[in-house]
Structure formats: C-alpha cells, structure tokens
Amino acid sequence: xxxxxxxxxxxxxxxxxxxxxxxxxxxxxxxxxxxxxxxxxxxxxxxxxxxxxxxxxxxxxxxxxxxxxx
Length: 70
Description:
70 residues; mainly beta; four-stranded antiparallel β-sheet; 0% helix
C-alpha cells in the first residue's frame, strides 16, 4: 500500500524488539522509502521500515495493528 503525505499509526502488541540506529547514511529525512512485512518469524512478526535517510527501523511483536493517526 502506498499512501503519500498521510499519517498512520502502528501498534506492536507484546513488542520484543525495537531497533533503530540513527546515522542518516543518505542524509536527514522524515519520509519513509519502504515498509517490509510484517513477516512471520516463529511466534512473532517482524516489520522493517526503511527511512529515506537510509536508516531502518526494525520491530518485532506478537501482532501488529495498523490504523490512522489520532
């Protein structure tokens, strides 16, 4: 799904990992390039969010909920 300029909420239920090394290898940005997942991984799911800055957020949780902001 591609949404331009919209805000969304992601909620990880029973989150077991949140990893974000903020180094801006491609320069500073607040935009998202690509979302990969959620991909099932044993008893949890993995979600990767690649920022336009080149940084990648990695989240693992039992379940993810997606919705609108607010």
